[in-house]
């Protein structure tokens, strides 16, 4: 399981308290006195924001918003605060992040929203069927073209009465829907050895 990280930016009152209770505080803790230090760390390695929360004061909130998703920021607006309440809020924020990460998948320049079954890009969105979503996710996870009979077996769970042209028809319709909505006829590419997502 990924360790949970807490990046505390320029809140000296909290640094000391959390450092004292870190053994019973289930987070890997990183303190930053300057925004530029945190920004440099983020620019060098974006994975530091995975499974993490940036704890900021009111004046630094706007700056941090430009660097990361708002779901990853917890702003402390006033002191004093109850540490038990803060821990509950941080845990709730991590649950929100986890739910959001599971429901939104990035595919090329698109966002695939599993919950609403929509493919989104630049303000446009396309409603998909469950089978279309399964097909996109399956192709996204492959780094080489996938043959129709393999798609038939893995995505359609192979039925003897399902002919390969049925799968091809479904993919043709999906490609057409994507072209009509996003003017993109390269999202799913048809190669001589199968279909592949254009990443």
Task: List the main descriptive attributes of the protein structure presented here.
single chain, 199 residues, 4-stranded antiparallel β-sheet, 4-stranded parallel β-sheet, 7 helices, Arc Repressor Mutant, subunit A
Entry summary:
This protein has 199 residues and is an alpha/beta fold. It contains seven helices and ten strands.
Task: Walk me through the structure.
By secondary structure, this protein is an alpha/beta fold. The protein folds into 2 domains: 5-104; 108-197, Orthogonal Bundle (Arc Repressor Mutant, subunit A). It has 7 helices and 10 strands. The strands form 3 sheets. Strands 2-1-3-4 form a 4-stranded parallel sheet, with helices on both faces. The chain has a 4-stranded antiparallel sheet with strand order 5-6-7-8. A two-stranded antiparallel sheet has the order 9-10. The two termini are 28 Å apart.
**What proportion of the residues form beta strands (DSSP E)?**
15-25%
Number of domains: 2
Report on the biggest sheet. 4 strands, parallel
What is the SS-derived class?
Answer: alpha/beta
Number of helices: 7
Backbone CA Rg: 22 Å
Strand order of the largest sheet: 2-1-3-4
Instruction: Tell me the total number of β-strands.
Output: 10
Order of helices and strands: EHEHEHEHEEEEHHHEE
Q: What is the terminal-to-terminal distance? A: 28 Å
Q: Calculate the mean pLDDT score and round it.
A: 84
Query: Helix coverage percent of residues?
Result: 40-55%
| Residue runs with pLDDT of under 50 for 5 or more positions | none
Shape: elongated
